[in-house]
C-alpha cells in the first residue's frame, strides 16, 4: 500500500503539491504564532526603567499576548479549514481513478487505507517544510510587533524544540482529519456511479455538508444578536466568531449558493458571446470545483472585512460618543503652566483642564475570593471637579464628583470594569509623599481605548508637578463671543494647540483607527496571506486537472486563446461569487453594531487584488494546461 501511495503521489504531483503547500503554510503559521506568544509570557523590563514606562511595556506585552492568542486560534482554524477543503477537493478530483481501483478488485478498506497513507506522506512532507518556514515567519511576526509598537525594541524571540510536537500534531493531524471524511465518502460510492459521475457521486451536498453548514449558521445567529451589547474586546471576539462560523457555513453550503449566483451572473456572461456562455455552463456544471475555489476566498473576505469593519465601526462610535459627552467649543493641548493662563483670555467662560500627572496609585483588587494589589502609573489625571462637570456630560455610575476634594479619588472609565475594592483606600505616591485616598465616585465605561484610569483633585498635585504635566483643556466660549476669535487669541498667546471639539474628536478617532489598523495587521497579516495563497492554490489545482476538458473544447473548434479566455471569465465569476458571499458574512458580523463604518477602501483593494491575482493565476494555469496537442490528451482520456 505504501508503494502504491508513493507511486500515486509521483504521478499526480501537481495535484498533491497544493495539498503539501496548504499543510506547510498552516504549520508555519501556527508554529510562528505559538513561539512568539510564548516569548511574550515574561515581560523584559530594562534596568532603570521608570514606573510609567515599565507599565506601558507590560501593557504592550499583555496586548501582544492577547493578539497572538487570537492569531493562534485563527491560524489553527485556517489550517483545519483550508487543509480539509484542499484534501477533500483532491480526493474529489480523483474519484474516477479511485473507482477504477475498486473495479480492479480493491476493497473499501483498502481504498481508505490508501488515502490515509497518502495523507500521512503529504502531512509529513508538509510538516517538515512548515517547520522550516516557521522560523522566518516567527522572525517576521516578532519584527512586525516591534515595528508597530506593541513590543519594545529589545524584544527577542527564539526557537524552541518543544514546539515540534505541536507542529507535527498540526501537520499530520489536519492532513489525516482532512482526508478522512472524503475517504470514507469515496469508499461508500458505487464504483460505476463514480466512473459515470452519476447517482451519489454526482451529489455535492452530502449529509456532512448539510450538518456542518446549518450548524454553523445556527451558532452564528445568536452571536450576531449578542454583538449589539458587547464591549470593544467582546465585539472583536463576536466578529471573529461570526466571521469564522459564517465563512464555514457559506463554504459548506456553497454548492447550493453558487448555481443561483451563476444564474444571476448568467445574463452578463451571455453578453460576452460564446465564451461567456461556455463559462456560464462550466460554472453551473462544475459546482464542486467552483465551491472549492470560492471557499478560501469566502474565508479571506469574511475575516478581513468583518474584523476591519468591526474595528472601524467601534472607532466611529467612539467619535460619536466623544462629541455627545463633551460640552465645549474648543480643546487646547498644552502644558499645565500654559493651561493655567487660559482663563485670562478674553471670551473664555469655562476652562476645564485634565492634567496627565506622573504619580502612581496602588489599589487592591478582589475577584472570586482572590485578593491582589496593582500599582497604576498611566491614565491618572487631575481635574477641577466643578469645571469638569460643566464641560463633561458623563456622570458617575456611583458616588459624586462633588466630593472629589482633598485626599480622594474617583475610579475612571478605563477601570470601571476592574474589580477594585472600593472600601479599601488606594495609596498614591506623589513625589516623596504617600497619600491614602478615599474613593468617592466610580465613572461608567466608555468606548474609547485608553480612557482615564483615575481622577484626582487638582489641589492634591504640587504646583511644580502640575506645571510640567501634559494638559488637555476643554474651553467654553462666553455667550456672544466668537469661537474663531477666541481660538485666534489662544494661538496668539502661544498657549498650546487649539482645535474645535469636532476636530479634536476626529483626531482621537483617527488615532484609534491607526491603532486598529495595526491590530488588523498583526491579527490578519500572515493569516490573510495564507488564505490568499489558498485561493491561488485552489485555482492552480482546479486548472491543472482540466487539461482533458480544455483539449475537448479545442477539438470542437475553439482556439487556445479562446479556451484561456473562457477559463478567465469563469474564474472571475467564481471570484465575484466568493467576494459576494464573504461580504454577506462580514455584513452579518457588523449588523449587531449601533454605528457601522464600512471599510470601502479595504474592500476595493481586496476585490481588485482578488481579480488581479486570481485572473493571472487562471491565465497562467490554463495556458500551461493547454500546451500539449489536444488530440493527445483526448486520446489518453479515452
Structural key phrases:
single chain, elongated, 638 residues, alpha+beta, 4-stranded antiparallel beta sheet, 9-stranded mixed beta sheet
Layout: helices, strands, pairs:
Blueprint: H1 2-11, H2 13-39, H3 51-93, H4 95-103, H5 108-147, H6 164-188, H7 191-196, H8 207-226, H9 232-252, H10 254-270, H11 274-285, H12 287-325, E1 330-335, H13 336-339, E2 348-356, E3 360-367, E4 370-376, E5 380-383, H14 385-391, E6 398-399, E7 408-411, E8 427-430, E9 433-436, E10 438-442, E11 454-457, H15 463-468, E12 470-477, H16 483-492, E13 497-500, H17 501-544, H18 547-555, H19 560-590, H20 600-625, H21 630-637
Parallel strand pairs: 5-11, 7-10
Antiparallel strand pairs: 1-12, 1-13, 2-5, 2-12, 3-4, 3-8, 6-10, 7-11, 8-9
How far apart, in Å, are the first and last alpha carbons? Answer: 27 Å
The number of distinct helices, counting runs of at least 4 residues, comes to: 21
Task: Find the count of extended strands (DSSP E, 2+ residues).
Answer: 13
- Spatial sequence of strands, sheet with the most strands: 6-10-7-11-5-2-12-1-13
Shape: elongated
Overall radius of gyration: 31 Å
Helix/strand-derived class? alpha+beta
Helix content: 55-70%
Extract low-pLDDT stretches: none
Strand count, sense and barrel status of the largest sheet are: 9 strands, mixed
Q: What do the pLDDT scores average to? A: 82
Beta-strand content bin = 5-15%
Descriptive account of the structure:
With 638 residues, the chain is of the alpha+beta class. Helices cover 65% and strands 11% of the residues. The protein is built from 21 helices and 13 strands. It has helices spanning 2-11, 13-39, 51-93, 95-103, 108-147, 164-188, 191-196, 207-226, 232-252, 254-270, 274-285, 287-325, 336-339, 385-391, 463-468, 483-492, 501-544, 547-555, 560-590, 600-625, 630-637; strands at 330-335, 348-356, 360-367, 370-376, 380-383, 398-399, 408-411, 427-430, 433-436, 438-442, 454-457, 470-477, 497-500. The strands form two sheets. The chain has a nine-stranded mixed beta sheet with strand order 6-10-7-11-5-2-12-1-13. A four-stranded antiparallel beta sheet has the order 4-3-8-9. Strand 3 (360-367) and strand 4 (370-376) form a beta hairpin. Helix 2 (13-39) packs antiparallel against helix 17 (501-544) and helix 3 packs parallel to helix 17. The longest helix has 44 residues, at 501-544. It is elongated.
Amino acid at each position: 500500500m505504501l508503494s502504491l501511495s508513493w507511486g500515486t503521489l509521483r504521478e499526480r504531483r501537481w495535484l498533491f503539491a497544493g495539498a503539501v503547500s496548504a499543510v506547510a503554510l498552516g504549520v508555519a503559521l501556527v508554529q510562528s504564532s505559538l513561539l512568539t506568544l510564548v516569548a511574550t509570557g515574561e515581560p523584559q523590563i530594562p534596568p532603570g526603567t521608570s514606573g510609567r514606562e515599565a507599565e506601558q511595556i507590560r501593557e504592550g506585552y499583555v496586548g501582544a499576548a492577547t493578539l497572538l492568542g487570537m492569531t493562534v486560534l485563527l491560524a489553527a482554524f485556517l489550517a483545519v479549514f483550508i487543509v480539509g477543503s484542499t484534501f477533500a477537493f483532491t480526493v474529489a478530483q480523483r474519484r474516477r481513478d479511485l473507482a477504477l481501483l475498486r473495479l480492479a478488485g480493491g476493497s473499501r478498506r483498502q481504498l481508505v487505507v490508501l488515502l490515509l497513507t497518502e495523507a500521512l506522506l503529504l502531512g509529513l512532507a508538509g510538516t517538515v517544510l512548515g517547520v522550516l518556514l516557521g522560523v522566518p515567519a516567527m522572525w517576521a511576526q516578532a519584527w512586525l510587533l516591534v515595528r508597530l509598537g506593541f513590543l519594545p525594541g529589545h524584544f527577542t524571540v527564539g526557537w524552541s524544540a518543544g514546539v515540534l510536537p505541536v507542529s507535527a500534531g498540526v501537520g499530520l493531524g489536519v492532513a489525516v482529519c482532512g482526508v478522512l471524511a472524503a475517504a470514507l465518502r469515496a469508499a461508500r460510492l458505487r464504483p460505476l456511479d463514480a466512473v459515470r459521475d452519476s447517482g451519489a457521486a454526482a451529489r455535492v451536498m452530502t449529509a456532512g455538508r448539510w450538518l456542518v453548514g446549518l450548524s454553523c449558521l445556527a451558532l452564528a445567529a445568536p452571536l450576531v444578536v449578542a454583538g449589539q451589547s458587547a464591549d470593544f474586546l467582546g465585539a472583536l471576539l463576536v466578529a471573529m466568531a461570526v466571521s469564522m462560523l459564517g465563512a464555514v457555513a457559506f463554504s459548506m453550503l456553497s454548492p447550493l449558493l453558487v448555481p443561483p449566483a451563476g444564474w444571476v451572473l448568467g445574463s452578463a456572461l451571455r453578453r460576452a458571446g460564446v465564451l461567456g456562455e461556455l463559462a456560464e455552463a462550466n460554472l453551473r456544471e462544475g459546482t464542486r470545483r467552483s465551491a472549492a475555489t470560492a471557499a478560501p476566498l469566502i474565508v479571506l473576505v469574511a475575516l478581513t472585512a468583518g474584523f476591519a469593519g468591526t474595528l472601524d465601526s467601534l472607532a466611529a462610535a467612539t467619535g460619536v460618543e466623544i462629541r455627545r459627552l463633551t460640552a465645549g467649543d474648543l480643546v487646547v493641548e498644552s502644558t499645565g503652566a500654559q493651561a493655567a493662563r487660559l482663563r485670562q483670555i478674553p471670551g473664555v467662560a469655562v476652562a476645564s483642564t485634565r492634567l496627565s500627572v506622573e504619580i502612581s496609585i496602588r489599589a487592591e483588587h478582589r475577584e472570586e475570593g482572590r485578593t491582589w494589589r496593582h500599582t497604576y502609573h498611566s491614565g491618572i489625571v487631575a481635574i477641577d471637579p466643578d469645571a469638569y462637570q460643566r464641560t463633561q456630560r458623563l456622570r458617575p455610575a456611583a458616588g459624586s464628583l462633588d466630593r472629589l476634594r482633598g485626599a480622594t479619588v474617583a475610579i475612571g472609565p478605563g477601570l470601571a470594569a476592574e474589580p477594585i475594592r472600593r472600601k479599601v483606600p488606594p495609596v498614591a505616591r506623589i513625589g516623596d509623599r504617600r497619600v491614602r485616598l478615599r474613593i468617592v465616585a466610580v465613572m461608567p465605561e466608555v468606548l474609547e481605548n485608553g480612557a482615564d484610569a483615575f481622577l484626582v483633585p487638582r489641589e492634591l498635585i504640587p504646583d511644580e508637578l502640575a506645571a510640567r504635566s501634559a494638559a488637555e483643556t476643554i474651553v467654553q466660549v462666553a455667550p456672544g463671543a466668537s469661537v474663531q476669535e477666541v481660538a485666534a487669541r489662544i494661538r496668539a498667546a502661544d498657549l498650546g494647540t487649539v482645535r474645535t471639539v469636532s476636530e479634536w474628536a476626529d483626531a482621537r478617532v483617527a488615532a484609534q483607527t491607526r491603532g486598529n489598523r495595526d491590530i488588523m495587521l498583526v491579527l490578519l497579516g500572515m493569516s490573510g496571506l495564507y488564505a490568499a495563497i489558498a485561493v491561488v492554490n485552489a485555482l492552480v489545482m482546479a486548472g491543472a486537472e482540466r487539461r482533458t476538458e480544455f483539449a475537448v473544447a479545442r477539438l470542437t473548434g475553439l482556439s487556445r486563446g479562446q479556451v484561456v479566455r473562457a477559463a478567465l471569465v469563469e474564474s472571475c465569476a467564481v471570484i465575484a461569487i466568493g467576494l459576494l458571499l464573504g461580504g454577506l458574512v462580514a455584513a452579518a458580523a457588523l449588523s449587531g453594531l449601533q454605528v457601522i463604518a464600512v471599510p470601502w477602501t479595504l474592500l476595493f483593494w481586496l476585490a481588485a487584488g482578488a481579480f488581479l491575482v486570481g485572473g493571472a493565476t487562471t491565465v497562467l494555469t490554463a495556458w500551461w494546461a493547454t500546451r500539449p496537442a489536444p488530440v493527445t490528451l483526448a486520446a489518453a482520456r479515452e
